[in-house]
Specification:
By secondary structure, the protein is mainly α. It has a domain at 32-64 and 119-322. It has twelve helices and two strands, in the order H-H-H-H-E-H-H-H-H-H-H-H-H-E. It has a two-stranded antiparallel sheet. The chain is globular, with a radius of gyration of 26 Å.
């Protein structure tokens, strides 16, 4: 049965145009073609990336953070309180009732939340690692494709397809990019959790699938163009984050504006109207549509939807910033979508909530709104006796 599934998965009619087989892509006459087995190396390379990242953050990012005065802040830990800890872990951090005064509970939850928040230094390390890779990848990617004829004439992407041999620079460009995205997927659970966490997972998975398919189906020329296009804006966002964490607000804001312009041009103009047009329209001049054709462009469609989603958030934040409706420094909180605006609004709402709560601190049992589950009233404590200081 497994052999049947294996044979069906690698059936030529799924991944190759009509009248072509995998035998047509076997190495011959000094010409080397892409093979699915080439992708095995990406998993050990991904683990190597994680090791390199560890030493980079330790010996490069940390000294750089110290140079820019990004420090690890000492946070007060919430004293042990099993009752509040239970509500914190099981009731969405908002218990309905508590025998403590509003100010006492506020202090405990504030410290407890701060314990779970990633430090500024951790954020800086992650941003500096991604900035370094994206910048190097963009420069290397441009070096790989800038002298190729299909960089200037997209119709040449499909010239001779699929009998297109690969060159070493294309091989390493693909393997390194794919390995890096594997490493991001492996480390996503331990990295700073952004507000677009689910979108990031979808993006990484779609990118890995897209790169893997484009390699063994020999969509390599189109794939190199797509990778270089994506890397062109990512390093700008990561550098803006670094300056934001360092407190260089004006530099951060200026870089963010440049990033927003580059992102809109590359992701909402060049990608859909040039690259997607190249992968959707031009191949049909050479062969009838097949499953691989639909699969590749479906993955491209998923990425494009994510780009539209991120562009909306970026433009909304840029508008608030330019019109002066955004109060406070611009901060960046995800790989492609700044979300500090919503975080700022939530903080204001929470502050007002705590102030209201504090005015009722003498009440025998404090009510906590916005909770969908019922919770019993906690045992009463004498005022400021058994509560955290």
């Amino acid at each position: 049965m497994l052999q049947t599934l294996y044979d069906y998965f690698w059936w030529e009619r799924l991944w190759l145009p009509v009248n072509l087989t995998w035998a047509d892509l076997e190495d011959r006459d000094g010409r080397v073609y892409a093979k699915a087995s080439d992708l095995y190396i990406t998993l050990p390379l991904a683990l190597l990336f994680l090791i390199i990242r560890y030493f980079f953050e330790l010996y490069v990012a940390t000294p750089l953070a110290a140079l820019l005065n990004v420090k690890e802040k000492t946070r007060l830990r919430a004293p042990p309180n099993p009752t509040l800890e239970h509500f914190y872990l099981t009731s969405g951090k908002q218990p309905k009732k508590s025998g403590l005064s509003g100010r006492q509970v506020e202090r405990w939850f504030r410290r407890r939340r701060n314990q779970d928040r990633p430090s500024l230094l951790k954020k800086f390390r992650e941003a500096s690692w991604r900035f370094t890779f994206y910048l190097i990848a963009f420069i290397a990617g441009m070096a790989v494709i800038v002298d190729k004829p299909w960089f200037y004439d997209l119709r040449k992407v499909w010239e001779g397809y699929p009998i297109q041999s690969t060159i070493p620079s294309q091989y390493w460009y693909y393997m390194i990019e794919l390995s890096f995205y594997w490493s991001l997927l492996f480390s996503i659970a331990s990295d700073v959790k952004r507000k677009d966490f689910k979108e990031q997972i979808i993006h990484h998975v779609a990118t890995i699938i897209l790169l893997s398919f484009s390699w063994f189906a020999n969509y390599i020329r189109a794939g190199t163009l797509i990778m270089a296009l994506h890397d062109s804006s990512d390093y700008l966002l990561e550098s803006a984050k670094m300056f934001n964490y360092a407190g260089w607000k004006n530099t951060c804001n200026n870089i963010f504006i440049v990033f927003a312009i580059v992102f809109i041009i590359t992701r909402l103009v060049i990608l859909p109207f040039w690259i997607l047009h190249c992968t959707v329209v031009y191949p049909l001049d050479l062969y009838p549509a097949f499953f691989g054709y639909y699969f590749f462009n479906s993955m491209m469609g998923v990425l494009q939807l994510l780009h539209i989603f991120w562009a909306y958030l970026i433009l909304r934040m840029a508008y608030k910033f330019i019109t002066g409706k955004f109060v406070g420094p611009m901060t960046l909180s995800s790989r492609n979508c700044p979300s500090s605006l919503s975080r700022y609004q939530q903080s204001s709402e929470k502050l007002q909530f705590w102030r209201t709560l504090s005015s009722k601190e003498d009440a025998p049992c404090t009510q906590w709104p916005h909770s969908s589950r019922a919770a019993p009233c906690l045992p009463h404590c004498p005022p400021r006796s058994c509560s955290p200081k």
